[in-house]
Fold these 2 entries.
Entry 1:
Amino acid sequence: MGKTKYMMSGGLAFSEDKDMERLRACSLNGWHICDIKFMGYALERGESTDYIYSVDYQTVNEEESEEYFDLFSAAGWTHITSKGDIHLFRATPGTKPIHSDRATVAVKHDNLGKSLKWLAISMLFMTVLVWMGALISTGPLRTMLAIIATILCIVSIPLGWTVMTIYHNKWKAKGKKGLVHLVKTIPFLFILSVAVIISVVVDNSGRAFRIFASMAIGAIAFPAAIWIIMSLYHKVRGNRV
Amino acid sequence: MAALTKPRHGYAIMSLIEETTKGTITIGPASMYTIIKKLLKQEWIYLYDGTDSRRKTYLLTEAGKAVLEEDVKLRKMMIQLAENGLKEAGEWGKPSI
């Protein structure tokens, strides 16, 4: 058996608490996180220990990083790894949480959302623009634009969803109930409207059903494929090192 | 903010608050860092000594002092109000027989 393995994340924006609980469970089984990977974590074999985990989002530049990490270690939190603005810490159970009030938790989610917000907005804008281009053009240009638009859709929908979830987390921390409910209903409205549009545009009901089925299969197969590729990649590389 | 009437670094503020409130109030490290960043941006505190990059010390600015004084005044009034309220409640609550 290898010394390291890959564990897929539920997406930090979507399941931060759940991910941290899973990391704790893995540590109890003797698998400790050592690195943040593409859409997941690298775990390494060690002794079974009860550790609790916390993640913080903060833009820390070179000269500020010592001060930042010193605050955590002084409070009993060991820094494990960082990826960009995402910093992961570990401590023994009973250590005081890294956030002590809701206002700073809201800032934390804002730190993560800020960087993604404009990317998501410009991507959505571009997607709409290319779709419109595809609708008004004809011939090979239309096919090309339609393909580009589809690719943009595949990227921008999860991205938009992620940003919405981050702001949902932020507003939840701030106690803004109305906004939280609004954000929660948007994905359902979106799926519903896509379903309605497809049913209306595609007159043949058999074909419409096939489109829904392939969408559902795609939604399951895409993350599964990433998990398989990352696990294999990790195994092959882990054995070589 | 009240902990920065004397130059102190982040961890010293965390320990001071924990000690003076006997552990009733604690500040987490992520919260502490976020609060320092916010106060610096508002120019209510400034970097007093940055020679030790691990333990930089901060001090209140004049603007920060004014804000703190205002805040204390407001809180005093609120405490006064609450104390008066409790006194009244005590008088009302006495058995009438």
Entry 2:
Amino acid sequence: MKFRFGGPILLVLLSLPASLFAKCLIAPGGTLEVRAPAGNLLVDTSGSDSVDVEISSRQVTLQEICSRDKVTVTATATSGMSGIPDWKIRVPRNVTLDLSTQAGNIQVDDTDGAEALLRTSGGKVTAGNIKGSALIKGGEVKTGNIGGNVELRGMGGRLQIGDVGGNAEFYSTGGDITAGVIRGHVKAVSGSGSIVIRESSGDVVVTTQEGDISSDYVHGAFDGSTQSGNIRVERVGAWVHAFTGNGDILFRLVPEKLGGDLHIKAEARIGNITMYLPEKMKATVDAVIDKPALGTKKIFSDFPGSALKVPIDALRSLIPGGPEKQGMTINGGGNTIKAHTSSGTIRILKGN
Amino acid sequence: MSCQDFQRQIVLDLYGELNEGEKVGLETHLYQCEGCRQAVKEQSEFSSTLASEASAFDFPSDLLVESRRALADQLDQIERKRPWWRIPTFSVVFTPMRMLESAALIAMGLAFGVYISNQQTVPAPAGANAIAETLPQNGLVSNVRIVSADSSTATVEFTGDIVQPLRFTGRIEDDTTRRLLFSAVQDSMNPGSRMQAVEVLARESSEPSVKEVLIHAFLNDDSLGVRLKAFEGLKPFAGDEQVRNAFMQALMSDPNDGVRVAVVDALAPFTKNEAAASSIAEATKYDDNTYVRLKGQGLIHTVGAQK
């Protein structure tokens, strides 16, 4: 009699999307390694001394290897797997996270581990504040502040990050890159999208094929390039290289010392160039507009510079429709300033 | 060069007619050739004889006139053989042909001068098709061609293009603003501008004409950035049939994983029935991206479970 009802009940229980569990003790500062064939990894960092994993699907078989310093959780998926299960993971806050899923989103609360490696081949990554360094790859990435160095790689999605305590590298096939205050150097490359670095204590090297580049303050040197978009750096502390195929360039040079390397190379194929320089900066200027507007002067400066000897090819500028060129020395000459646009305006102005 | 060539140069050299290169070449040759050195000696003696004894000769008074006329005739023949595009060499001898060319050049110069002075005084005519009598000071002129140059009236007619800087402020819903934004979306040479325009238009994506432009950009633009911006504008309308169709098309054809991931995520909340879920499952069945494939297949189970 007992078995008459027991069989169907067991069948019903087995057919329900039952959860799978794993639990391992982990030492403070230990490492959690997750390798998921597919799954949304939802990491709650409010745990005390153990790693708890719960999966919302019977289509995977969970395997765990437990030691005090390192816990590894993997799973094998059934062949007909469909849908993406949720992996609910609970860990102590001070654990190093090394999470990887082939398909799924990754969501991590604030973590104090030495490192956070969060990778998904498709899906978003969302993280709170990360105390250590971080390597994050995902379709779209959004994080809070990161204490150490960071490398973010996006595959067709926006990369958004708060402040960074070390150096930062951003790579995106497409999608905007937005970062807060970076205490180190910055390298950012986007296939298609704008790049905004609010502030950087070091040098900034940014490249995008299409999109604007902007920063409030780059304390070091700035090297920015976009094929189509504007470049705007409100304050920059050292040398500047800026190139845009189609757009305007504007920056304000505010070096702490005038004795450093303050050379400038700015080129806007189609667009205007505006630069503000320190009033006492020594510079030798070479400004060229290939196709100036008819009958108007398009190179402006409010520095009392002295004109350089006109090179022979500059005589072409006397021909209507020829290039407009201006060479001058500021404060006796020094740092080279090259500004070049095919059509647009060049302004070299006193900034402070 | 043969000795004969060098000996011709010797005469020219005596009258200072050789350029530096030819002079160096001749001097180098003379260094090696006894015969030519002898020729130099003879020519020098002949010249000095002429110079010293010229005063003793009594030339007919019309010899100089005749010589100049003969020289002019010879130069005219040379001029006629010269291709029209070759610039005449400078010479103090005025042939009829050269005088004609000079007159034509002066006429063109005058015409250009009149044109330059006119452009600063004559006001601009109204109407897009009117012939411009003045040029905007900030215009960039290109593709200029001279249609006609009439030396009798000293006028020249040009055609060409003028590009002027534009600065315009308007509300997004205004016609002119929207026309400019649509024009920017179609600027094939400037993906950065397209991206900005699409981003601005995405704020008004509920408007049917804007939605159409966004759909077109989303499905057809080469720039991933533009497609992603267009997607952001369309995402809230994933339940709308027109947008859903566009998303389905992108799901099957967009080469970027990020776009397909975003699309399948956007479609999921609006997939309420089995037919819709099946079509997504079908579209994603062979997707290279595991996330897209699993998410697409999983929607059938999600819809089934909701029932």
